[in-house]
Every structure is written in C-alpha cells, then in structure tokens.
Amino acid sequence: MSECIFCKIVAGEIPSGKVYEDDEVLAFHDIHPFARVHFLIIPKVHIATLADCTPAHEGLLGRMLLLAPRLAKEQGLDAGFKTLINTGRGGGQEVFHIHVHVFGGGDPVPRT
Ligand code: 5GP
Ligand code: ZN
After folding, report:
1. What span, in angstroms and rounded, lies between the C-alpha atoms of 74 and 77?
2. I want to staple 28 with a disulfide (CB 3.0 to 4.6 A). Which of 3, 15, 16, 106 is the partner?
3. pLDDT under 70 in the chain at which residues?
4. Which residues neighbour 26 within 8 Å (Cβ) at sequence distance 6 or greater?
5. Domains plus CATH for the chain?
C-alpha cells in the first residue's frame, strides 16, 4: 500500500475538503492555508515531483493548470490568485506527490 499521503487522500483513506474531482485530477483545501482560500490540485496518479514529469504528462499538467482559474473563481478569488509548484527539497517541497498550490484572498497578502 502506498505511504504517500496524497495517494491516501485520492483513495479516500484520509479525509479532505474536496474542491473538485474528475477521472484524472483531484483538488482539495490545504490543511494549513497560507491565505483565506488555499487549495491543492493534484493528479490521481502518483508522480513525485514536477521534475519527474515526461512528455507523456503534458496533457495532465495542462489540465491541472487550466483548472486553477476555474476553481479559483468558484472559490471566490475574483481579484486573482497565486499558483505555486514546489519541486524537490531545495524547492521547499514537503509532500512528494506533485501538486499545484492555488491561494489568495484575505489579509495578509500571501508573500510566496
Ligand atoms: P509542499 O511544501 O509539498 O509544496 O506543500 C505541501 C502542502 O500540503 C502543505 O501546504 C501542507 O499544508 C499540505 N498538506 C500536508 N498534509 C496534508 C493533508 O493531510 N491534508 C491536506 N488537506 N493538506 C496537507
Ligand atoms: Zn502519491
């Protein structure tokens, strides 16, 4: 069984505040939000980091990125939002299942 926490969320073994789901992608609220709204977009398949992606993942990555503005709007981030992908330990990545952070709103203004 996978020890990856985000794979466990995909499998429904760990609860999450789901924002969106389709056959390939899941989005859910970050457990420690940086801003009033902060959610993560992840692929259902386990890919550790952006640096592990290949041309075969082009469509999946595009799908994840295109979801960011749509879901941000649905979450009320009409004034805009930030996106962030941490890659590897040196990039500040803590969970090694690729994810796009989408966050915004509230005070203080997100710095990252
Ligand atoms: P990273 O530093 O890897 O880019 O970010 C990982 C993010 O995942 C962090 O913002 C952290 O708060 C979030 N996170 C870690 N564990 C969980 C969890 O079990 N549930 C949810 N919803 N978010 C998590
Ligand atoms: Zn995983």
Report:
1. 7
2. 16
3. 1, 107-112
4. 9, 10, 18, 20, 41, 42, 43, 44
5. 5-104 (3.30.428.10)
Q: How far apart are CA 39 and CA 29, in angstroms?
A: 4
Tell me which amino acid residue 35 is: A
Q: Is 19 helix (H, G, I), strand (E, B) or coil?
A: strand
Mutate to test the pocket of ligand 1, among 4, 18, 40 (most ligand atoms within 8 A of CB): 40
Give 46 Cα–ligand 2 centroid separation in angstroms. 4
Cβ(37)–Cβ(75) below 8 Å: yes
Q: What is the dihedral of CA 60, 62, 65, 69, to 10 degrees?
A: -120
Q: What pLDDT, on the 0 to 100 scale, is given for residue 74?
A: 97
**pLDDT one-digit tens code per residue, 18-29:** 999 999 999 999
H or E element that contains 82: strand 82-84
